Amino acid sequence: MTGNIDLAILQMVNGSESSFLDGLMVTLTSGFTWIPLYIALLYLVISNNDNMTKIMLIILCGIGCVMFSGGICDFIIKPMIGRTRPINDDMLDGIIYTVGDMSNKDFSFFSSHAANTTSLTMFFSLLVRNRKFTVAMTAWALINCYTRLYLGMHYPFDVLVGIAWGALVGLLLYLVYLKVYDRMFPDVEFISSQYTSKGYTIITIDIVLLTMSLLFLYAILRSFIS
Predict the structure, then answer these.
(1) Paired strand residues for 195
(2) How many domains would you assign to the chain?
(3) What residues form DSSP beta bridges with 201?
(4) Which of 9-18, 33-42, 103-112 has the lowest mean pLDDT?
């Protein structure tokens, strides 16, 4: 019963008759597309922390988000559960829309794309404490999740579990960061229109948001061209 509902929802959001949307989803789902965003987040961290210990603590927690969310998924859960991706299921041939030569030989449950992007969104949103930043990062994570359904790489349940697991990992890594940080450095509240409450400058947040916007624009233009 659950599998039927999962498939029915997937069919509602999987694929389209638009070559533009096909190209857009392929570009947005690629990890290479978002490398400049990760660099912008690194710049945000370096610019707003005054010593290497603080910087390395955040970087290690960010790496931990990816390792624990996506790593546990890819190397433990997926092989253990062994759920076939919709795009690889012979029984769904002709039912699931596929884009070009998109494929992936590993398993479907659960989505490491969803887990990774959600864990980073959770961690950095709690770290920075800025509403525009949180909304933008959340939109980025949800769009990445949607591409996995559009391309037939995961069932909706795979994505939902990935989101839940990623959110938990991001929260736990932030609590670890907070505990270590509070032992090493005094907590200072910033009260200024130029800073968030955690001391992150609005201008560096805007740089991250601009980078994200330009990457979405790049994805759109590339899809038009191709």
Answers:
(1) 201
(2) 1
(3) 195
(4) 103-112
Number of Cα atoms under 13 Å in the Cβ half of residue 113: 26
Expressed in angstroms, the distance from the first to the final Cα of the chain is: 40
**Sign of the torsion angle spanned by Cα atoms 1, 10, 158, 141:** negative
pLDDT(193) > 70: no
- Within 33-155, where are the H helices? 35-47, 52-66, 72, 78-81, 112-128, 131-150
DSSP state of 60: H
Q: Do residues 120 and 66 make contact, with C-beta atoms less than 8 angstroms apart?
A: yes
Domain containing 15 equals: 2-225
- Structure confidence at residue 5 (pLDDT): 87
Q: Which two tokens stand for residue 93?
A: 């041939």
What is this structure's pTM? 0.91
Q: Which amino acid is at 203?
A: I
Q: What is the pLDDT of residues 30-70, one digit of tens each?
A: 999 999 999 999 999 999 998 899 999 999 999 999 999 98
Centre a 10 Å sphere on the Cβ of residue 176 and count the other Cβ atoms it contains: 15
Q: What is the pLDDT of residue 185?
A: 74
For tokens 């965003």, what's the residue? 37
